[in-house]
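Hypothesis: this fold can be encoded by more than one sequence.
Test: take the C-alpha cells below, design a sequence, compare later.
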C-alpha cells in the first residue's frame, strides 16, 4: 500500500486565459474546477469528447472542498465538479453570495471504513475511537451507514440531516471524533490514529487505498443514494448550452464505461 497524501492547495491542470462562457469572450471555452481524483481525471477523459462538440475544456484542480466554490462565486470558473448534493445545499445556505444550482449528477463515491487493526466492524472493541470528517454535510451519510451496519441507532426521522447529537443508542460506547478535514483522514489512517477511519472515496483513491480491497465496510451505492457528485454552476448560467453539453458528455456511455473500468466500483456512475 503506497502511503502518499496530497497536500492542500490549488494546481492548474490545464493552463490558459480564463475565457469562459460566464466571464470571458470565448463562448466555446469552459473553465471547470475539480478535485483531483476522480473528478479531474473524468474531465480529462471527457475533454476530447467535448472538443468534438466544439467546446474547449480547461480544468483547474483543487485539493480542498472550500476553494472551488469560492472560485465559482468569484467568476473564476464556469462550473465546478467535486461536491455532492447535501454539501452543495449546505454551502448555498451558509453563504449569501453562493447563488448556485445543480446542473446535473455524474457519479457517486462510496465512503469506506478503514482500520489498521481490525478486519471487520464486528471486531471493533467497546469504546473504539472512530475518526470522521468535520464536514457536517457528510455526518448524516456516515451515521446512516453505521446505523445500517448495526453499530448505532439514530433518533427517528433523523435521516440525511443526522448529527452526532442524533445518536440515540450507542451500545459499544463508540467515541466519535469529527475534527478532521476530509483531505487529511487518509494521513490519520496511515499514521495509525483511531480504531477506524471513515474516508471519502476520492481521498481514499488519492492515497492509493482501494475501497473494495482495503475498507472493512463500504457505503451502499444504490440508485437512491442522495450523495451523487454534481456539476455546480451559477444560477445565471442555468440553461447555457455549453454547460448542458458538458453534463451530457459526462453522462455518456463512453464516460460511464471509463468510470466503471478505471475505478472498479470505487466510483459509480449516477444511475448505474
Amino acid at each position: 500500500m503506497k502511503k502518499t497524501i496530497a497536500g492542500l492547495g490549488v494546481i492548474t491542470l490545464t493552463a490558459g486565459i480564463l475565457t469562459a462562457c460566464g466571464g470571458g469572450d470565448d463562448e466555446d471555452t469552459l473553465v471547470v474546477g475539480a478535485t483531483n481524483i476522480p473528478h479531474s481525471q473524468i474531465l480529462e477523459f471527457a475533454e476530447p469528447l467535448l472538443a468534438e462538440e466544439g467546446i474547449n475544456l480547461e480544468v483547474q484542480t483543487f485539493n480542498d472542498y472550500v476553494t472551488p466554490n469560492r472560485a465559482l462565486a468569484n467568476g473564476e470558473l464556469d462550473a465546478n465538479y467535486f461536491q455532492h448534493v447535501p454539501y452543495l445545499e449546505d454551502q448555498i445556505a451558509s453563504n449569501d453570495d453562493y447563488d448556485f444550482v445543480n446542473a446535473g449528477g455524474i457519479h457517486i463515491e462510496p465512503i469506506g471504513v478503514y482500520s489498521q487493526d481490525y478486519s471487520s466492524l464486528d471486531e471493533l472493541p467497546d469504546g473504539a475511537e472512530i475518526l470522521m470528517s468535520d464536514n457536517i454535510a457528510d455526518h448524516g451519510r456516515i451515521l446512516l451507514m453505521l446505523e445500517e451496519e448495526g453499530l448505532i441507532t439514530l433518533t427517528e426521522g433523523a435521516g440525511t440531516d443526522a448529527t452526532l447529537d442524533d445518536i440515540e443508542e450507542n451500545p459499544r460506547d463508540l467515541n466519535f471524533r469529527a475534527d478532521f478535514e476530509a483531505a487529511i483522514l487518509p494521513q490519520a489512517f496511515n499514521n495509525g490514529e483511531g480504531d477506524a477511519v471513515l474516508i471519502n472515496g476520492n481521498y481514499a483513491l488519492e492515497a492509493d487505498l482501494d475501497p473494495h480491497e482495503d475498507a472493512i465496510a463500504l457505503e451502499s451505492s444504490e440508485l437512491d443514494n442522495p450523495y451523487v457528485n454534481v456539476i455546480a454552476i451559477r444560477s445565471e448560467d442555468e440553461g447555457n448550452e455549453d454547460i448542458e453539453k458538458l453534463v451530457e458528455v459526462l453522462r455518456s456511455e463512453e464516460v460511464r464505461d471509463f468510470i466503471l473500468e478505471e475505478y472498479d466500483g470505487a466510483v459509480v456512475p449516477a444511475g448505474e
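Residues 36-51 form the longest helix (16 residues). Residues 10-109+225-269 form a domain with the D-Maltodextrin-Binding Protein; domain 2 fold (CATH 3.40.190.10).
Hypothesis status: open.
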